[in-house]
Design goal:
The complex is a heterodimer of chains A (about 100) and B (about 675). Chain A has about 100 residues and is an alpha+beta fold. Helices cover about 40% and strands about 30% of the residues of chain A. Chain A has a four-stranded antiparallel β-sheet, with helices on one face. The termini of chain A are far apart. Helices cover about 5% and strands about 55% of the residues of chain B. In chain B, a hairpin with a 7-residue loop joins strand 2 and strand 3. The longest helix of chain B is centred in the first third of the chain and has 18 residues. The chains are: A alpha+beta (about 100), B mainly beta (about 675). Chains A and B meet through helix 1, helix 2 and strand 2 of A and strand 1, strand 32 and strand 33 of B. Strand 2 of chain A pairs antiparallel with strand 1 of chain B.
Chain lengths: ~100, ~675
Amino acid sequence: MKRISVVFAAFAVCVLLFTAARPKTALRQVKFHAAMDCKNCVKKVVENVSFEKGVEDLKAELSDKSVTIVYNPAKTDTLKLGDAIRKLGYKAKVVEDKAL
Amino acid sequence: MKRAASIILFTLMCAVRAFSQEADTTGIYGERKDTLAATVFTGRQSTNYLSRGKDIRTEVISAAGLCKMACCNLAESFENSASVSVGYSDAVTGARQIRLLGQSGIYTQMLDENRPVMRGLSAPFGLNLVPGQWLESIQIAKGVTSVINGVESMTGQINLEHRKPTDEKPLYVQASAMNDSKCDLNVISSLQLDELSTWSTVILAHVDGNFKSMDMNGDGFMDDPRQLQFNLSNRWLYFGQDGVQLRFGVRAIQDRRNGGQMESLGPDRWKADILDRSLGGYLKLGIPLNADNTRNVALVTDYTYQNMNSKVSFRNYDAGQHSAFVNLLYQDQDNENHHFTLGLSEMLDVYDEAFCTPYSRRSVLSDTGVFGEYTFRDGDRFSAIIGVRGDYYLDGGFRFSPRVTVKWTPVEQLVFRANGGRGIRYSTPLTDNIGVLSTSKSLEGDYLSHPLEDSWTYGANLTWYLPCGEEKKTYLSFDWFSTSFREQMLVDYRADAIAFYTMGEGSKSYTNNFQLDFSSELFRGFTATLTGRFTDARQTLRWQQSDIKPMTSRYKAVLNLQYAARLNRWIFDFTASLNGPCRVWDFMKGLNGMYSNGYTPSYPLLYAQVTRRFKGFDIYAGGENLTNYRQKNPVINASDPFSGSFDASCVWGPLMGIRLYAGIRITIWKTEK
């Protein structure tokens, strides 16, 4: 029982630490129109672009072929993010870029 | 063995160096076709969930779910599930068996992308021979399922979806190592051979081994056998512009395991040496008969040769099995409401078995079937599937098997399902109860015969989707299933012998199974799943005083917590389970001062894992059985293994204590379209 409590407590601490962590810089949100045509394309974009430097959040939708990215402007910009999508083989065009 | 370990380590290091520059990581690819959420991805994917769209109550373990634990092979992939219990067949060979609805896994039909697999000789070690990292998802359907693949599914069906040739991942490498010297390496390559992906292929390679003997409980027996497995598969897909689909593939496996007493006890020690080899291939062809593909014909064929050479102490069991399966289907859909399937099938198994003799005995088991299935569907609100099947069993005669499935969604938040029908299979007594080889007891009865087993299963499920939690994915589900046998091969353990016999007049064998599931994403990234199962299993056995089925756990509860930080860069998994007691065989009562009340103790298990994801690769580390709970004295009369009362088959709990592991997953994505 003691071991279970220790592992559970460690799990709870990790959750608290990570939910509390937030970047200090003002973030921006960019929406791309990307030429994705299947679910695998969407997954491919998510699995790759999520790990680009400065990306704070990402959502991709097949219905309107959009990729919405929350990013840290001190670390990246829309050009680099667009290139990251294009590198995967999809045309990408900025639809909207705004401060959050 | 040392050399093999060095090769694995060297390959792992090379792989890390060569591929750490390129993308992906998880291979998180379980496609949810049942909700609109299927088109939206935010980097998180449900790991274990009940499928909302399936007609039959189906639990899905996605690729993400398979990454929650070490999951080196299929046997280790069900730890998060209360529906399926996995245990050792015995304390020496490392063979694993599952239980679904309180019945042995032999009554659950295993499918590899809807082809029956793991039958007969391949059943005892089959779960160990499917690498977890080869799988994209596992679907566990409870109760009787479609008649299309035969009626061997008595308590349910487990379908394995492998990684696809169409995955845009030219290379995926996974390697892991455990503190007990168990190592695991998988290399998978999906290649699209032309721009339109008309032809694509996936090559899957696996090697794993357990290189060190350990005896943690000091009984002189290895806790886990030394083992080395090679597994190679190549699958092809042709997707024509005219809608024709052709899938074919080959697979070869070799698995060698050496268990028994520790090597330090000398050459005359009690040994269990098993060599398992198999070679197989399959072909699936689908041809549309009209432009919108509402009418089509399909051919599914499969052939496997399985060979097992086992020498357990003074007993040898050398067997070969040719297994062939052919299914010819015609499907027609009048409109969105009515759908028909008609078909013919043949399942042929030829066994050559030699048990305690150099001479083999040949058995031919044949099941020729004709079937039809009608589906009525009223949008998402109601569906009914009625399937009938007539099979002619060689030496068993003609049997008629009806099956019915109903799904009703009265309101959006509520789904009701019910199904029922008949299940029939040939028994293969020795391989169905491979643990009997790990005893020195005499075997009684006709254990080399293959009588038919016949059962009826009914069940219902109610799932309530609650409008709370993140992304409204919360649900509460309750299900009840009952399986009752009319004919069954029974195995009865005594102190000095093991008896095999079929059900007699007035005897009974049934299980009632109740399960409650709750799952919710309480806040973004944090998912909690709580499951509880209660089983009442009864069986009339000649040599037992009670009709409560021995060695069947009464209950199991599982709590799984997962937290995935934003973009899944960190993932924390925590799984705790409580495994209920099971009644022991009568001869075990009071043995070595244990089981005085006739039951095993209940015990907790704990698993934890942390995963860190980077661009191009993941690293993970975790621990299994962190409570360090082990079954005491799993080998009966371990000090005198050559005596007639030696028995290593009465296993109900973990044999290994705490195990720590670490691993890496690397994926290269295709970057051009």
